[in-house]
Amino acid sequence: MNKGLKCLLLSFAMSLASQAQAHMPGPAHCTRSANLLACVDVDGNAYSVNTVGTTLYLRGFEKDGHRYWAQTNSRFGQLTFFTGIASDGEAWVGYTRRVGWTTINRFSSSGGSSARFTCSRMTGC
Predict the structure, then answer these.
(1) Residue 22 backbone phi and psi in degrees, to 5
(2) What is the total count of domains within the chain?
(3) Is the pLDDT of residue 123 over 50?
(4) Burial, 28: exposed, middle or buried (Cβ in 10 Å; 0-12, 13-18, 19+)?
(5) Between 27 and 86, whose confidence is greater?
């Protein structure tokens, strides 16, 4: 899985865990409406987040890999499941589980990447 995509997934996982706005690596220029956040970072990557109830729809473009991607996050209480696919055929699945101030995160991709990591508001990931 592309490093930029991993950072993006981690950033959104942390965002969901802390119930805060997304914090992306590096400065980005964003436009926001009631349900949509659209951003372009200094590297030329673009992404958007659309909220419908407890579901997040993420779309993006990675400049380095010249690929588009889409991800859907569905929240059920303290548990959030996500699935995604990229224009090069890579697919991924995972979940984020919130336990107090800690999140337990796991994902795997068809490209062979997988990880399990724990994040805390106090100590980070």
Answers:
(1) -60, 135
(2) 1
(3) yes
(4) middle
(5) 86
